[in-house]
From TrEMBL:
Keywords: Signal. This is Heparinase. The lineage of its organism: Bacteria, Pseudomonadati, Pseudomonadota, Alphaproteobacteria, Sphingomonadales. Residues 1-22 form the signal peptide. It comes from Allosphingosinicella deserti.
Length: 630
């Protein structure tokens, strides 16, 4: 009941809330609680959170849009001058939901149809690309299914939309994508299928695009069933797990039955996600576009899995319990002052999701909660209290799991550790083009609320940055071989080697053989150690090795040579060897921000002694407290 009362208070506050522009962007509501809220045994049913808290928040934004139209601003951003090329589609799908959510015979229907028509006219000339096309087509299809389309869109506008909402705008005649990552095949298929269902084109294009989507999935997922976002370079991140959930959802949305192969891939994603369940509703801990989207990725995969019956009955109940926590977290943690907040309170997201997209992010995130909640409702969970045995069930999850993405020329994997309720992930992947140098892709431990990276940031977080005499900078980020994982009691050991390091300064990862490295991790209860043996090639001189550690812990002070002790926070100590002198300072630079909030302390270590012709021993160890969770 406490969670429901908290939600009611938030709803009442929303009704009289100042717009986000009035908020102090430097005020961090969760400064002492980087995990955000913890929902032990009392969390509201997902449908209550969505219908009583989220929907009024979205409705308030749409009412502002209807009043202010092109003059609308949100979070200091002029909505229609923001350059958000998905915005018309996101607006359309939100406006369609206002219509389709009405019960039969509701007297508000006619006004809402007029509202949709007015906004469609307002945005018809605005840029609307890829995802925006899909959102818009999905909105029109939902109206068409209810025989409301011609009442919601005026004839001239509908004729223009029929031309504009076309997958061919980002797919070539040979079905290759135009400068887009491979997950956009699924977007193109969805658009083509929706066009077919509305009678705008034949079924041939959607069948061809679906075949291309699944062929790519087979080719680059191999025997392990996870989609490489690149063409074989090894970027296995949030989207590699989410994509099959999206494909399954789009198949069902457009009246198709997912194959046994799709269901098997979906089950692989479920197996990766289950060990990451927690009491806070926290989601993906590494890679790009995480934060709020790292949590909705769980929702989309889990609801697809529940709908397609690839979960056991117990897993389904626990997936619903976790989904309810994710929904509550969205409203409690991510929504502030009537808007989602991915950018203020010391938070940092990637440029792709910059604050210029604030209005669209509100709408697209809300859509994910609305449609996944509808699935849980259809499965019989409407208003159902989440299983009160969820916290006990978490204790039964395996303490250590290894998920393989690829093995062979280079190995790619994810090691997951559960330590007294805490989830720690160690991704061993290549961020590849545009991301290899960014620390959310580094092969280091991540743990929501304790160990995080900074979006689009390249500081050497827990990984050595090696400077050669000619000024070249190398880092061990991409070329993993011989990955081995061993479990000995409560300790998990992980090791690999790299015969080439990654040359910094390039857009894509580039192997550089002027140094090699062997790496070993030891993950024990309350303690993580990394040991590296760095070997320069003959005649190569290393002039500097740097390391940084950004932490939510406070009060860092020198405890011994290369060691820092913290006065508060979950990380208690951090020590480094082989990196020279280390110093702890307040993390004032904006680069030291995680998706969930600002780091408090950064420890910087630098060995500037010239080193030549011999192996270099490097290591660091951090210790941490038991989490707040039981």
């Amino acid at each position: 009941m406490i969670a429901r009362l908290a939600g009611t208070t938030a709803l009442l506050a929303l009704l009289g809330a100042a717009p986000p522009e009035a908020d102090n962007p430097d005020t961090n509501r969760w400064a002492d609680r980087p995990h955000g809220p913890i929902y032990r045994n009392d969390v509201a049913p997902m449908d209550w959170t969505v219908s009583a808290r989220l929907m009024p928040q979205v409705e308030a934004l749409l009412e502002r849009l209807l009043r202010e139209k092109r003059a609308m601003s949100l979070g200091g951003v002029k909505v229609f001058e923001s350059g958000d090329k998905f915005l018309p589609g996101k607006i359309a799908v939100a406006m369609a939901t206002r219509i389709t959510a009405l019960p039969e015979g509701d007297p508000r229907l006619e006004q809402r149809l007029r509202d949709f028509a007015d906004i469609a006219d307002l945005t018809i000339a605005d840029a609307n690309d890829s995802w925006g096309i899909y959102y818009y087509a999905s909105a029109l299809h939902a109206l068409d299914e209810r025989k409301l389309l011609t009442r919601a869109v005026r004839p001239a506008t509908l004729a223009r939309l029929r031309t504009q909402l076309d997958w061919r705008r980002f797919v070539r005649p040979d079905l290759s994508l135009i400068d887009l990552p491979n997950n956009y095949y699924g977007v193109a298929f969805s658009i083509a299928r929706l066009r077919f269902l509305m009678g705008w084109e034949s079924e041939a294009a959607s069948e061809a695009l679906l075949a291309r989507t699944l062929d790519h999935y087979r080719k680059y997922s191999g025997e392990y069933g996870f989609a490489d976002e690149t063409e074989g370079k090894g970027r296995f991140d949030r989207y590699s797990v989410l994509l099959i959930g999206e494909i399954a959802q789009r198949l069902v949305e457009t009246g198709m039955t997912p194959s046994a192969e799709v269901k098997a891939w979906l089950r692989r994603s479920v197996d990766l996600l289950l060990p990451r369940f927690n009491l806070s509703g926290e989601g993906f801990e590494y890679g790009r576009s995480i934060g709020a989207y790292g949590e909705t990725a769980f929702l989309e995969v889990l609801t697809a899995a529940a709908r397609l019956k690839v979960l056991t009955p117990e897993e389904e109940r626990m997936a619903y319990a976790f989904s309810s926590r994710i929904a509550a977290r969205y409203m409690d943690f991510w929504v502030d002052g009537g808007s989602v907040d991915l950018w203020n309170q010391g938070r940092r997201t990637d440029a792709y999701r910059g604050i210029h997209r604030i209005f669209g992010e509100n709408l697209s995130l809300a859509r994910q909660y609305v449609y996944t909640n509808a699935i849980w409702n259809d499965l019989g969970y409407r208003g159902r209290e989440p299983d009160r045995g969820y916290a006990r069930w978490l204790e039964t999850l395996p303490r250590s799991t290894t998920t393989w993405f690829a093995r062979g020329t280079h190995d790619r994997a994810l090691v997951t550790i559960r330590d007294r309720g805490r989830v720690i992930g160690l991704p061993i992947i290549n961020g590849a083009e545009g991301q290899h140098m960014h620390n959310p892709y580094f092969p280091v431990p991540f743990s929501p609320g304790m160990l995080q990276g900074s979006a689009d940031a390249a500081y050497p977080h827990l990984v050595p940055r090696i400077t050669l005499a000619d000024g070249s900078v190398l880092m061990p980020l991409a070329w993993f071989k011989d990955v081995r994982v061993a479990r000995r009691g409560a300790v998990t050991e992980v090791q690999w080697r790299q015969d080439a390091l990654d040359l910094m300064g390039e857009k894509d990862a580039r192997p550089d053989r002027r140094a090699t490295i062997e790496t070993r991790y030891r993950l024990a209860p309350g303690r993580i150690t990394r040991i590296d043996r760095l070997v320069p090639a003959a005649g190569i001189r290393i002039v500097r090795v740097d390391l940084e550690f950004a932490s939510f812990s406070r009060g860092g002070r020198a405890a011994a040579m290369g060691s820092t002790a913290f006065s508060s926070g979950e990380v208690r100590t951090f020590s480094a060897k082989g990196y020279g002198a280390c110093r702890a300072e307040p993390a004032r630079d904006p680069v030291y921000r995680a998706p969930t909030g600002p780091f408090e302390t950064v420890v910087r270590c630098a060995n500037e002694a010239p080193i030549a012709g011999r192996p270099i021993a490097l290591s660091w160890t951090l210790s941490y407290n038991s989490p707040v969770q039981p």
